Amino acid sequence: MPLKFLLRKSNEQTVHIFKYIILPSISLSIIALVSTSNQSLWVTSPRDHFYFELFGTLLGGILAFYYMSRAQTLSDRFSLFIGIGFLVNTLIDLLHATVSLLNMDNILFLKYFIPQTWFAGRLFLSAMLAIAIVKYVSFSPLNSSTKELLQQQQQQQQQQQFSAKHTKKNYENYKFSRVILLYLIIVTLFVSIVAISSLFVVLPFSVIDNITIHRPYEIFPLALFILSLYYFYKNKIYKNKDIFYTSLVISIVLDIFGQIIMSFSAQHFDTSHNIPHVLKDAGYFINIIGLALSSIQYNIRLRESNEMLTIQYEKVKESEKMKDEFINIAAHELRTPIQPILGLSDIIYTKVKDEELHELLDIIMRNAKRLKRLTDNLLDVTKIESKSLMVNKEKFNMNILISEVLKDYVNKKKNQLIVKIVYDFKRKEDIIVEADRDRISQVIHNLLDNALKFTTTHNNQTIFVTVDKKKEGEEEKKVVIVSVKDTGEGIPEKILPKLFSKFSISNSTTGTGLGLYICRNIIEAHQGRIWAENNYNENGATFSFTLPIAI
After folding, report:
1. How many other C-beta atoms can be found within 10 angstroms of the C-beta atom of residue 220?
2. Which partner from 150, 170, 367, 481 sits 20 to 30 angstroms from 523, CA to CA?
């Protein structure tokens, strides 16, 4: 790592303090010296003070709205908490300005009311800022760097997989919310009492004429603003690249000097009284600009992220297209030699009388058929993925089709024991459907093969195939229901929801996980539906599908 980078990294905090605290403090110190040395330099009227406060109230309202919007957009409790602080402070400022204007002729009232309500508003805002910044890590994990954010999201997802950890996290969030709510209630009650009592009561030592610091109460908000600034760097909030945090630290510096200057104000509307109002409004304005630029910055980053995602998505699409083309070509190429293998093996089987050779030929033919099914499935999946799966519909009798399919399973053996297949004619009459005969036959074959695979062979196990008619849907359309019921071990609950997905997991050690996925797409192409469920109070599972009955 270059030395220059190490120096820059180690001095990052120092550079930030120099740029945003020391440099502004030089100019603000000069302003403070000038304003406190000559109190008559800028004296205003009660009406001018009202306009100052009204302008500050307007900026404070805009700021509160911005913070609330940011909190809503980014799910950011840090911004929400500060937004509440600005909102309440704005209401206090509005009370401060309105009552001052209505009582502008009461000099004694103005002497104590104005400092006390100013103190109430600044105390509330400084307390909210201090709480939010001191508790920043708990408040706003979403405002860390993108890398840290992704790591936290991954950790959250991992935690959600474990119910105990998830419960603990929920409890901690609940506990944190209760603590923050308690802080908010305490500060709000205290400040509300100070603000309202200012209308009727002169608080002890709120204004002292015969000492240099005429408003000692300003020390409390000043201490909280300084505490906020200290924890801003202690919690390394300055590391956030969001310009909003830069504007926040500058506004806190302005507030600190505003409190220092205000503590020297001997009379209402003198220089030390007016300058802090200007600094407060300047801090509001800088904060608004920071939030606005942050929104623009966020939108630019979001657009860049979207563009990057679009590029990545196009690459993935291209990769998927190449994969599908490869699978399609590979499946077609595999299909070509399989057919002669099956045909020639069958010819040799009929000509050779040796039982041992028959067994070897059976192995060849069985595996060739298995390879043919695999290539057929791969071809079907590529058609489904490319949305080119076609169905050639014709009218046929479902009972006849099932009877023909079952002929393929006569004397079907499994581990040298026959599994009995029973076709239950619940409906003796013809059931005419309009569908792709070959594709529906493929579905029934697949369900029967699946049932045979999972049906145990002891105790004369049986597979039941049933056909029935019923009405379903709001329009009560007539449908045929074909069910294949086995007496195997059933379907594990964790597998059941994704049973008809591509490459779905099953208990079988063989197969590609494509058969049921293809069945689902074939049935849905016919406006039907397919599902599976474990048998009630008995072993095994039942696979069923529906098809509309031809009119």
Report:
1. 15
2. 367
Cβ partners under 8 Å of residue 186, min gap 6: none
Distance CA 364, CA 367 (A): 5
pLDDT at 414: 45
d(CA 460, CA 451): 14
SS3 434: strand
3-state secondary structure of 548: strand
Any idea which architecture 394-548 has in CATH? Answer: 2-Layer Sandwich (3.30)
β partners of residue 396: 433
CA 125/CA 203 separation, integer angstroms: 20
Task: For residues 336 and 230, give the distance between their C-alpha atoms in angstroms, rounded to a whole number.
Answer: 76
Domain boundaries, the chain: 43-313, 321-385, 394-548
Q: Is the pLDDT of residue 306 over 60?
A: yes
* pLDDT, position 122: 93
pLDDT at 276 over 90: yes
* Alpha-carbon dihedral 291, 293, 297, 299, rounded to 10 degrees: 80
The pTM of the whole model exceeds 0.70:
no
**Own/partner long-range contacts of 233-242 (Cβ < 8 Å, ≥24 apart):** 233/13, 233/16, 233/17, 235/133, 235/134, 235/136, 235/137, 236/13, 237/133, 237/136, 238/12, 238/13, 238/16, 239/12, 239/145, 240/143, 240/144, 240/145, 241/145, 242/143, 242/294, 242/297, 242/298
What's the whole-number mean pLDDT along residues 334-348? 83
Report the alpha-carbon distance of residue 83 to residue 71 in Å, rounded: 8
CA distance 109 to 216: 19
Lowest mean pLDDT of 31-35, 39-43, 318-322, 361-365, name the range: 318-322
- Rounded Cα–Cα distance for residues 473 and 394 (Å): 24
- Tens-digit pLDDT profile for residues 433-460: 999 999 999 999 999 988 888 775 545 5
**What's residue 241's pLDDT?**
84
Look at 11-20, 147-156, 314-323 and tell me which has the smallest mean pLDDT.
147-156
Select from 96, 52, 59 the least CA-distant residue to 278.
52
Contact 107, 81 (CB under 8 A): no
Mean per-residue pLDDT for 198-213?
87
What distance in Å separates the CA atoms of residue 66 and residue 378, rounded to the nearest whole number? 55
CB burial of 358-371 (b: ≥16 within 10 Å; e: otherwise) equals eeebeeebeebeeb
Q: What backbone torsions phi and psi does residue 507 show, to the nearest 5 degrees?
A: -80, -5
Residue 278 DSSP one-character state: H
- C-alpha–C-alpha distance, residues 388 and 325, integer Å: 13
**Are 232 and 273 contacting, i.e. CB atoms less than 8 angstroms apart?**
no
**CATH class of domain segment(s) 43-313:** mainly alpha
